[in-house]
Prior knowledge:
Blueprint: E1 3-7, H1 15-20, E2 27-31, H2 35-40, E3 47-50, H3 57-65, E4 69-72, H4 81-91, E5 96-100, H5 108-117, E6 125-129, E7 133-139, E8 143-147, E9 153-158, E10 162-169, E11 179-181, E12 190-191, E13 196-203, E14 205-211
Parallel strand pairs: 1-2, 1-5, 2-3, 3-4, 5-6
Antiparallel strand pairs: 6-7, 7-14, 8-13, 9-12, 9-14, 10-11, 10-13
Amino acid sequence: MKRAVLFCNGEVSDLSFHRKLILDDDLLIAVDGGAKHLYDLNLVPDIILGDFDSIPPDILESFQKNKTECISFPRDKDYIDLVLAVEEARSRGCKQILILGAFGGKRVDMFMANLMAISRYDGCDIVMKNEYSEARLASAGKITEIKGCEGDYVSLIPLDEKVETEDSVGLKYPLKDLVFHFGESLGVSNELTEKKASLTVKSGKAMIIRQKRS
């Protein structure tokens, strides 16, 4: 299954961690200023996409010389660059998408927009990740797997007015036949009891966030 790796313009503090996540046959997409992270990793993106308001001109020129495909959009647009990048990856047949560099930074609004952007893609396996956290969508009728270390926090954040769970495996507090309401904190700070857990949502959509314990 073809996978795309998208680098956004958020924080990337541990370069070695992020480098280990990238496979040789990944489609690498730099989401505007996220090109800086690929430059620091000595990797050449297949595509640079965005309105080019946050990528240094010298880095853009360097990648253009390496024949990186550039897709530009006007600064005044209806969608954030990450959504445009996800759409581009999907149009090229990518069913798996790993998003890096989307956490942290000075723009809390952009972090929230990035996080919520992945909630619209039910038919795609999208994970947003850094060395401390990962976020993925859990939607009705699908088994969602969470991998990490024993003791890691796992939080279920409802995205619909009501989210009903069917069952779970590998969590300290079982999520069997429970109801979570939008805006409630009931699903926060569960814990992994083994390296891999899973849960099934019966109805509604939720964001599942795994947070490294230490």
